[in-house]
Design brief:
With 450 residues, the chain is an alpha+beta fold. 64% of the residues lie in helices and 16% in strands. The protein has one domain: Outer membrane efflux proteins (OEP), CATH 1.20.1600.10. A hairpin with a 2-residue loop joins strand 3 and strand 4.
């Protein structure tokens, strides 16, 4: 008896342990995510966000590179030369001509040279342009983040709506199954026709097929969401249980389209093109630079690095300081042509800015219109669901009392399912319109905050 109790106790502990293990595995394998968490993970994981961050770092290195042009440039050189044959020269002294070798078999030198730009308009313009380039990439990173947020939000609500449709079909299947069971009981007792049972089974099969299609659609939508989040596709995720509530207040107010990231990126790009124009014009300006060097050289008939004056090798130092001025006088019109090309680049970008502003204005107006229509549609579909639920309940009640046919019962159930799915679809249309409006107002970053 005691042995059986001990065995049962061990079995109970083992079963409990198994359930704990499976429960723990399931908890770790599946992650429940909110929209804010999905956006957070996307901004951390997506390649676009990572590359945008790397471009900002590249721009910072460009600033360092440009700054180096205004700093002293110091270099050192060393050399060792052996002249097996020394060229002779003819010298005249007092009417006599003498053949003499000017040079030594061995020469060695070490020189340190310093160059400092005193005035170079291209260097100063390049430094300003490098700082502006960093600001450009910061804005471009914000634009990339907005695109990521839009994709994640759209995919998130796509999953939400598909799951709501699946819930609707599950309820429809349960209701139809209850009707089938009632009819089966009636058929078994000879109070109903077999064809009614067959029609109900056909209805259940159709609902089951549609439900399987929705299960597949939910899985595909989740895969898209996981892709936009930048997480492994095999990772299991579940959405937080939340409802969609229309926000008519988003329609109110005005928007400054010049503050849209798209326009700010183009304006910053225009600033860079202006710096490019100034850098090109700088080729017309003179440049002034300072050069200084200091060297140590040795020459003689023997290897200089290990010999001195006692062995005929002379070592001496030397130095020079110079000021270089370069004044461009005539370049054949090349510089003027480059300047005109730079001006055309700016004019072309101005056209793009105007076109973008017009496009953003159209996007904003359309977003407001879609929001207004979506809110109206949601109210209509919501009322339609309430009416379909009333008709379905009344029809089922009448059928039980013989006041309605089976066709009317199935039709009312189909009508309720269609009404709920239409309502859910209208919620998705609304959310898509809401995301477009938030984007049009330049407020997509607000979706990161709960």
């Amino acid at each position: 008896m005691n042995r059986k109790r001990i065995t049962a106790k061990k079995l109970g502990i083992s079963v409990a342990a198994v359930f704990m293990i499976f429960g723990s595995t399931s908890a770790f394998a599946q992650q429940q995510v909110s929209l804010q968490e999905a956006i957070k993970q996307a901004l951390q994981n997506k390649a676009e966000a990572k590359k945008a961050t790397l471009e900002i770092k590249r721009a910072e290195l460009k600033i360092t590179e440009a700054r180096a042009g205004a700093l002293p440039q110091i270099s050192a050189t060393a050399g060792l030369t052996y002249n097996p044959i020394i060229q002779e020269s003819l010298l005249e002294f007092g009417g006599e001509r003498i053949r003499a070798q000017l040079g030594q078999p061995w020469t060695s030198s070490a020189v340190v040279t310093l160059n400092q730009a005193i005035f170079d308009q291209r260097v100063f313009t390049g430094l300003k342009a490098a700082k502006s380039t960093r600001e450009f990439y910061v804005l471009n990173a914000q634009l990339s983040n907005e695109q990521i947020i839009e994709n994640v939000a759209t995919a998130y609500y796509q999953v939400f709506v598909q799951e709501e449709n699946l819930k609707t079909l599950n309820v429809s299947y349960t209701n139809t199954e209850k009707v089938r069971n009632v009819i089966k009981s009636l058929v078994d007792n000879g109070l109903a026709k077999g064809i009614d049972l067959d029609r109900t089974n056909v209805q259940l099969t159709n609902i089951s097929a549609n439900r399987q299609q929705l299960i597949n659609a939910v899985e595909l939508s989740k895969n898209s969401l996981k892709f936009y989040m930048g997480v492994p596709i095999e990772k299991q995720i579940e959405l937080e249980e939340k409802s969609i509530e229309p926000r008519p207040e988003l329609i109110a107010g005005n928007v400054n389209l010049d503050e849209r990231i798209e326009v700010r990126v183009l304006n910053k790009n225009r600033e860079l093109l202006q710096y490019n124009l100034k850098a090109t014009e700088a080729y017309l300006y003179p440049t002034v630079g300072l050069q200084a060097n200091y060297g140590w050289a040795g020459q003689g008939p023997k290897f200089p690095l290990s010999n001195g004056l006692r062995n005929g090798v002379l070592w001496s130092d030397y130095s020079a300081i110079g000021l270089n001025v370069n004044i461009p006088i005539f370049t054949g019109g090349a510089t003027k042509s480059k300047i005109q090309q730079a001006e055309i680049d700016i004019q072309s970008l101005d056209v793009d800015i105007q076109e973008t502003q017009l496009s953003l204005s159209l996007e904003y107006k359309n977003a407001i219109t879609n929001m207004e229509n979506s809110i109206i549609t949601i109210e209509n579909m919501k009322g339609n669901v309430e009416l379909a639920e009333k008709v379905q309940k009344d029809t089922q009640s009448n059928y039980q009392y013989g006041l309605a046919t089976l066709t009317e019962v199935l039709d009312s159930e189909n009508a309720l399912t269609d009404a709920k799915q239409n309502y859910t679809t209208s919620l998705l249309d609304y959310k898509q319109a809401e995301i477009k409006l938030i984007k049009a107002k330049g407020e997509l970053n607000t979706l990161q905050n709960p």
